[in-house]
Amino acid sequence: MYSVEFLENDRWNSGFNGSITIGNESNVPLDDWTLEFESNFEISNFWNAEIVSHNGSKYVVRALDWNKQVAANNSISIEFSANASSDVDLSLSNVQLNNSSISLDLAPTPTPEPVLEPTPTIPKPQLTPVPEPISEPAPSSQLTTPPTNSAPADIDFSVANNWGSGFTGGLEITNLKSTAIDGWQLEFEADFDITNIWGGKIISQNGNLYTIENVDYNTKMATGEPIKIGFNANGLPEEPSNFVLNDNAVSDGEGNGNATPPESEPNVPSEPDIPEVTPTPPSPPNFSSPDNGGDYNYGESLQKSLLFIEAQRSGNLPEENRIAWRGDSAVNDGADVGVDLSGGYYDAGDHVKFGLPMASSITLLSWGVMEYREAYEESGQLDEVLAAIKWGTDFFLKAHETNSNGTTALWGQVGNGGTDHAYWGSAESMTMERPAYKIDSNNPGSDLAGETAAALAAASIVFKSTDASYANKLLTNAKQLYDFADTYRGKYSDSITDAANYYNSWSGYEDELAWGAAWLTKAGESGYLSKAKAAYTGVTKGWTQSWDNKSHGTAILLAQETGNSQYRNDAEAWLDHWSNRDGNGITYTDGGLAWLDQWGSLRYSANTAFLAGIYSDTVNDYDNRYSNFAQGQVDYILGDNPNKFSYQVGFGDDFALNPHHRGASGTTDINSSAPNEHILYGALVGGPSSPNDYSYSDERTNYITNEVALDYNAGFTGAVARSFSLYGGEPLNDTALAALPEVMVAQGLSRLMEK
Questions:
Q1: Average pLDDT over residues 7-13
Q2: Kindly report the CA angle at 488 between 482 and 494, in degrees rounded to 5?
Q3: For residue 532, is pLDDT > 90?
Q4: Pairing of strands 92-97, 100-101
Q5: Do 2-106 and 148-249 fold alike per CATH?
Q6: Domain ranges, ordered by start, for the chain
Q7: Do 515 and 451 contact (CB within 8 A), yes or no?
Q8: Catalytic residues
Q9: CB burial class (10 A; 0-12, 13-18, 19+) of residue 739?
């Protein structure tokens, strides 16, 4: 009924172009297809499809909006570029189409590279007669461009596939010179927006002006032999113009140069001096590379990170609670305003429920499951992480008030910061008032509503395959919240003024509007991509993803969704800055920590590691520098540092014993000399307070270096899940887990998921 055919199209030493054809031999259309397979090569670029997930050798790809349907007795093709050494036997295995196994058809012979054949060259019309020069004329300040017949190359533009809102196009460059061109760079203007390119790489885009250069396998352009560049683009397939190759104007394949030919014959020297421009590709920056990957038990680290998140739960705890020293707490939250606001998560070492960092944490946790779901499955932690996400999203649903017109209010904080921080004791023993704070149309909070929309949209993707009804509910609420955020604009910290003392919205709300719209786009909702693009304002390479600033993650999401060079360039400029250790990037400690800020320094390196890994796995990575950076930061946290110290509580032989956490301390006196009574398994502490590996203090009173927080662990958990996908590890079995002091083995986690 259905078939899948794999073709190797064009191979070079380090990789190849390939295609996969999905055939529908039935009498009914195939709708909304998803393809799964395993490969023995690494795919670097897809067009005509998007990568849903990539874990190790396993890929899951799905249709784009314009090719979701494969008509009866018809087929569609998706193309890709891949990295593979010349001795690798190229093949696919374990192929599934819409969760059904499919036998793979292999093509007997290779076919041309995936850029479809260009439109045949039209004979050049005769323009203003110009004597044919003896040789190529030298550049002249009197001419904007050389005459057409002196151009160093010819360019043909073709359209392979047009679906109305976009198209697949190609450029074919033919060297007209008598000698080979070694290293090329092409400029042109285009009225369309290139979202994906192969056979070349975009190095700059300014408005409609593109500059692209060769890739490794097509550096040399032999005389008379064409080089093909393919791309996907949004917009109409109007022919590009003003081509310049290595600083020389070129023809467009129809005899059209970039300027009107001169009215008089130019001076033609007998021996012209035309410089050969050979751009030198920029050298990759120095980066933090782990000495040895896979030196730690990432399965255990992942397992314990989820234990910490569980320890931060507020409200009525389920029977499956694994943290023996935790009990029900703050069960009457919201009673002062007549709304059930029990549940959710305590923020850090305190007991306030701050909506913005809580939502940010749930978004990152969900993203980690999206990208590394197989790692969670193989480590046995999928149920636990889904329960962790749901504990947050259930709270957001309760905090979100609606009527027939959509959102009316969102409760964004429970507990007063000053009152709460004046109390040192357990959550179970609290007696102070816990006021609730909200945003509404008169007191807007676009950042809070936008981030909460992002969390619900991201979680909807996570639950779609296991609980479609719940996923739809999350998505409906996400859209309502985003529309509210977009309509009633303002900073939440101007409306919830108590939050300004702790989680002020320094970055404003535009980043959350872009972030929320990008996640709704990721969740399959139409109409939000344009909103994401409009709200996106770029990234600050000297900062990173945090509870406040979402621009870095947005750049990656938009790069994933569009392939647009703007977002790729922004993301890579930021990641290059963080992975650069030559003194021109982020500050590094001698031991290899990428250090940004004194308060909770490890959260910033962990968040960057998490996003660097995702970018490496799904968009682009040169020489694995982003992947190596990510792994280096994870390993530093787990013990690969001059102190041989684990900054994750309860992991390794030497770890923090006195994190700044009221419940774990087991005392009502923060200054007590007694060590913490409870081990806060899995918590990531703040880390070094300066770019000095030894500027860490394991003291309960030191909230700069030793506090813990939900948002500290959110990105870290995803980064560790990636490490597990690369290097494996063994989480503790039930016996070993139950042997940990004050840790119980969860029974019936599925019951929690059903609540």
A1: 66
A2: 105
A3: yes
A4: antiparallel
A5: yes
A6: 2-106, 148-249, 298-754
A7: yes
A8: 350, 660, 698, 707
A9: exposed
Whole-number pLDDT of residue 400: 98
Query: Would you state the pLDDT for residue 58?
Result: 86
DSSP letter at 54 equals E
* pLDDT exceeds 60 at position 171: yes
Q: What are the φ/ψ torsions at residue 188 (nearest 5 degrees)?
A: -165, 165
- The DSSP string of 671-736 is T-SSPPSS--TTPBP---SSSSTT-----TT-HHHHB--HHHHHHHHHHHHHHHHHH------HHH
**Cβ pair 685, 647 in contact under 8 A:** yes
What's the CA gap between 477 and 508, in Å, rounded?
23
| Exposed / middle / buried, residue 306 (Cβ in 10 Å: 0-12, 13-18, 19+) | buried
CA–CA dist 65, 558 (Å, integer): 16
Distances (CA, A) of 186 to 158, 170, 197: 17, 14, 14
Q: CA angle 349-353-357, nearest 5°?
A: 85
CATH number of 298-754: 1.50.10.10
Q: Please identify, in words, the CATH class of the domain defined by 148-249.
A: mainly beta
Q: Which residue has the higher pLDDT, 551 or 231?
A: 551
Task: Return the axis-axis angle of helices 510-522 and 551-562, rounded to nearest 10°.
Answer: 30
Average per-residue pLDDT in the chain? Answer: 85
Q: Give CA–CA dist 754/477, Å, rounded.
A: 19
Bigger pLDDT: 182 vs 713: 713
Which 8-state DSSP code applies to residue 521?
H
Residue linked to tokens 């467009």: 252
Distance CA 747, CA 304 (A): 17
Higher pLDDT, 747 or 389: 389
Q: Please tell me whether residue 477 adopts helix, strand or coil conformation.
A: helix
Q: Residue 688 in contact with residue 375, Cβ under 8 Å?
A: no
What pLDDT digit, counting tens, does each position of 279-307 carry?
333 333 333 344 446 789 999 999 999 99
Alpha-helical runs (H) found in 146-194: none
pLDDT score of 563 more than 60? yes
Q: How far apart are CA 530 and CA 536, in angstroms?
A: 10
Of 17, 2, 7, 21, give the one whose Cα is nearest residue 107: 7
pLDDT band at 547 (very low <50, low <70, confident <90, very high): very high
Per the listing, tokens 């057409």 go with 148
- What are 350-377's pLDDT values in tens digits? 999 999 999 999 999 999 999 999 999 9
Q: What is the pLDDT of residue 161?
A: 67
Q: How far apart are CA 649 and CA 678, in angstroms?
A: 11
CA distance 398 to 134: 81
Q: How far apart are CA 501 and CA 418, in angstroms?
A: 9
**CATH number of the 2-106 domain:** 2.60.40.290
pLDDT at 83: 76
Side chain identity, residue 42:
E
The position carrying tokens 């990656």 is 556
pLDDT average, residue stretch 412-419: 97
